[in-house]
Amino acid sequence: MASFTTSVAFSAIGQSSCEKKVNVSATRYLASNFEGFRFRASVLCDSVGVRASNSTSRRPIQCMSTVTDVPPTVSDTKSNFLKAYKRPIPSIYNTVLQELIVQQHLMRYKRTYRYDPVFALGFVTVYDRLMEGYPSDEDREAIFQAYINALKENPEQYRIDAQKLEEWARTQTPDSLIGFAAREGEIEGVLKDIAERAGSKGSFSYSRFFAIGLFRLLELANATEPTVLEKLCAALNINKRSVDRDLDVYRNLLSKLLQAKELLKEYVAREKKKREERTESQKASEAVTKCLGEQQYVRQ
After folding, report:
1. Cβ proximity of 69 and 46 under 8 Å
2. Distance CA 211, CA 245 (A)
3. Which of 74, 84, 114, 210 has its CA 20 to 30 A from that of 107?
4. How far is it, in rounded angstroms, from Cα 82 to Cα 59?
């Protein structure tokens, strides 16, 4: 399966006592078009408690921070995932998982990040589509648990919130989906909170997983008209252009992944056939050898 392998390189440059710039680049994806999951980020650490004396004696300026203020690195998150799930993962799945965990790490530790159920629905949708056909259901769920725990979040909360949103969306019409603000309910409250935070231009962090969560709501409500997405984005104070762009990346990802899985199936089928042919050939050789041995014994 070497043909499906993708390499991920990490480099840190320009470090000082209070500033650290990290460049993270993901090179090559299954077929090529994975630019949506390539990125460059800069992380600045805060310094507090700086004191300077007014006296003639000179004192060194101290830059102090608590350990809890320093977020884990990408390497820490990836290491936590590998420690939690130690079994090998087929390269076609592992390639994308490694890309996603790096991307989600940067989302998770942004200053404006705040968990919300639509984000959770988006990630669960991506994960379940990615892992379709995985050899073991038990391993698939164990990988999910390890992935979310590595980001220091609650995998059960992701699943529960995603299920609630899916069940709610199935009971909606395009009009009721758009008009959530006029009604009361648990999910309506979630959407109102998102709209309020997104409108404040400071306490909401948009992401591709959020866009995919919106897409899933529309999908389950059979709201296929393009105008419905436009109205829903307006009601949530979300930039529709960003959503359209990220949904295009998502659709392309699914298309490339489907192609890769088909190639993998063909590869596995060929290898299985080769093994069966070798086994049959070996059995035939053993049968001939046994027959010749018996004939030689009878002659003696």
Report:
1. yes
2. 9
3. 84
4. 45
Do 41 and 24 contact (CB within 8 A), yes or no? yes
Computed from CA positions of residues 76, 78, 82, 84, in that sequence, does the dihedral angle turn out positive or negative? positive
Query: Could you read off the pLDDT of 48-102 as tens digits, one per residue?
Result: 333 333 444 444 434 333 445 688 999 999 999 999 999 999 888 898 899 999 9
Tokens of 205: 């962090």
Spell out the residues 6+ positions from residue 6 whose beta carbon is closer than 8 angstroms to its own: 26, 27, 28, 29, 30, 95, 98, 99
- Percent of the chain clearing pLDDT 70 (strictly above): 71
Is the overall model pTM greater than 0.85, yes or no?
A: no
What is the spatial distance between Cα 145 and Cα 199, in angstroms, rounded to a whole number? 33
CB-CB neighbours of 204 under 10 Å: 21
Residue 170 has pLDDT above 80, yes or no: yes
Q: How many CA atoms lie within 13 A of 34 on its CB side?
A: 23
Burial 182-192 (b: 16+ CB within 10 A, else e): eeeeebbebbb
Higher per-residue confidence, 150 vs 17? 150
Q: What is the DSSP letter of 64?
A: B
Amino acid letter, residue 80: N
What is the C-alpha separation between 128 and 121, in angstroms, rounded? 10
| Encoded tokens for 79 | 């290491």
Output the six-digit token pair for 156.
């059960």
Q: Where are the alpha helices (DSSP H) in the chain?
A: 74-84, 91-108, 117-130, 137-150, 155-170, 174-178, 186-199, 208-220, 226-236, 240-299
Q: Which residue has the tokens 């390269």?
A: 91
